[in-house]
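If I may wish for something, please sit down with the protein I am sending here and say whether tokens and residues agree:
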Amino acid sequence: MVKQLPPIIQVGDVLLSSDILTEKFCCDLSVCKGECCVEGDAGAPVTLEEVAEIEDCLDIVWDDLSASAQAVIDKQGVAYVDSEADLVTSIVNGKDCVFTYYGDIEDWQTHLPIQNENLRLYQFLREPLIRRFGETWYQELLDMVEELKRQNYL
């Protein structure tokens, strides 16, 4: 019998929703173009290093951005500090990330993230988690997963 995980887990000094261990997820950005980023009240959290990388790529994507997104970027840049003092990507009209793609997707409902019964969220996010927290931290997460499996939580 599988035991119930607590809603929050801690890996090192990082608190995470336990959903990261249980939810199945896989996304093909070449198909969905980031549709899940359309609704919200802030942009995606970023580090100063990530802002520099985004700025380095801005010329490549500039023509694909909406005129509104271009105006926001011209005025405040690709990121700003939000009301919670987090560095986040800039948004248009108080909700849409400036990098949301509105290209030729006819019916975005057909492009929702793919549910993959073999891939958990922490596995799908391996590279960005390592980039943000490091290899040692990610290995600690994997060790926790193995221990939780051994104890019948997963």
About this structure: Confidence is low (pLDDT under 50) at residues 104-112.
